[in-house]
Amino acid sequence: MMLPNAVPVSWYLILSAILFSMGVAGFLIRRNIITVFMCIELMLNAVNLSFVAFSYELKKIDGQLFTFFVMVVAAAEAAVGLAIILTVFRHRMSLEIDDVSSLKN
Amino acid sequence: MIPMPNLDVLGFLVLATFAVLCGLSVILQKHAVASALSLVGVMGSLAVLYLMLGAEFLAAVQMIVYAGAIMVLFVFVIMLLNSGSERPAKARYFAYLVGIPSLLAFLGVISFFILKELPNTSSVQFGAFTQGGPAPVGRLLFTQYLLPFEVTSLLVLIAIIGAMVLAKKEID
Amino acid sequence: MDFFLVSLIKIVVVFGAFMTTLAYLQWVERKVLAHIQLRLGPQRVGPHGLLQPLADVIKLATKEGLIPANVNTFFYILAPFLAVSLALISIAVIPFGPEIELFGVRTNLELTSLNIGVLLILAISSVGVYGIALGGWASNNKYSLMGGLRSSAQMISYELPMTIALATPLLVLNTLDLRQIAERQGGGWFWNWTAFSYPPLLFIAFIVFLISAFAETNRVPFDLPEAENELVAGFHTEYSSLAFAGFFMAEYANMVTITCVSTTIFLGGWHPPFPAPYSNFVPTALFWFFGGVLLFHGLTQPARRWDRFTFPAFGVISLGLGAIFLLAATVLPIIGQILLPVFWFVAKVGLLLFLFIWVRGTLPRFRYDQLMRFTWTFLFPVALGCLLLTGLGVALFG
Lengths: 105, 172, 398
Known about the structure:
Chain A is an all-alpha fold. Helices cover 74% and strands 2% of the residues of chain A. Chain A contains three helices and one strand. In chain B, helix 1 packs antiparallel against helix 2 (32-52). Chain B is globular. Chain B starts with 6 loop residues before the first helix and ends in a 5-residue tail after the last helix. Strand 1 of chain A pairs antiparallel with strand 1 (123-124) of chain B.
């Protein structure tokens, strides 16, 4: 197999798109709240990769700073989200999203 | 003589394959701990990709914050609740028949446009862009992005308080 | 090609020395604990039990590697691998000495130099919890699960004061490269070391770092993940044979790494505590002193029968080592440039390791709520205060 001589930045962007789509797919097909939450983290990571790739392409580090902020927000989100999950589990004894549907009809 | 493969290319291909496999594992594993560990794999390979893109500080932060703190928190909560494997879902024909094909179509369109609109992106070489060290990142963070930085710290404070209030057991 | 050859030699030497240290650290720990508790410790295998580590390795390697029923086999096997390999990585960025010139090759006494070395060590230590948490979870045993849970909560909590205490000297040193960190503390008396600058702020940071290091390595008094009188053996209850050896080795490797890090960042790395021409003779004086004491005791008042032969033998070895260091300090600077810095580095690391063992022999274990309250209401605010005051000091006087 012939390997190309260099990796263009666009490949990184495509990898980012693939990972993002996986996150969306997992978000759609999974039923466990924690796994759904992890799929959101996967999407955030995919977006981070494209920020860093653009930062390389433009030779400016602003993109890396956006990633930094995304990470901090993700940390805050994880803390609050997991606390909510704990509360939900304490009330319903279940982690399935389908069980948390008292507001439906 | 066998031509030595370019390490930038080889590294990217190996890491990208690993990241995609781990990503698939995140969404296909039945047990949440396995998903979490696969997500740590994705994050690890992304950290090395950040290194190749010259973002060394970010790579370290990715490992410390994402893999070392956020995911440990996930694993902790999964182990604490210890709810076992996910029960097999009722077949969701809508998700499988419409969602997955449209997702693949979305992916194809995105990749097509990336390759079409950005045909001449610069090629990635390790060490070609060295502005991602702690010093330049810190300088920019505390000058141009000072306000977002402060706002984020406030957000984190609110999140800490919120998490404490939510997770606290009611004293009966 | 020189670079690869030199790197290979360094890797072999450092890896061999590291592994030997890990094996003998366990012997030293058993001996020191024994003497704290007025026992003798290992005595049977070799003189004074010196071959005990070898016997332990053979015993662990030849035991049956049992995989219990109903465990998650993949993660059960992955966990010790993860623990031990993550624990062994960090030694690669630790500098043991200055740049040396040997046979016309200039090289640094370390495996690799990173300009984000401190961050790498933090990253690896923060990922290290997975080995323990995963091992505890995959064992499918309630004690193991409790151990894994405790360890992940404890390590997340103590990582905060540890990181902040580690950031405090970085304000003064202004770099993340461990080699530069060590170099900037040298060239004089011990009050140039970071632990003693801006007194007493950085010394408090050093103490906070040490306390968190005890928790990060799961050592007494913070060994709740394996608290044997509550949890059988905690996260490694179900492990046997080489998998258990992996966890065991990871614990000692973490201990060595964290003491190396605190030596490099707080205690001046390889620099002697006072200036060069006099400090060069300290190793000789120490070794000769020990050799003399050993010879005297062995020849005049041996407490046991075998001491009559072993003590004089050790004494002669010690005198010989002293002579080598004397030669290195005076007529053979080519050896001296390696031996003397490495001696000081190893001496400081050894003192800190002794502190770890000493504390294990002295302090009782914390209760779990005490552990959490201690870090969140005491250690973390203290570390934060140190950081802020040091920042103020650097801004005003730096």
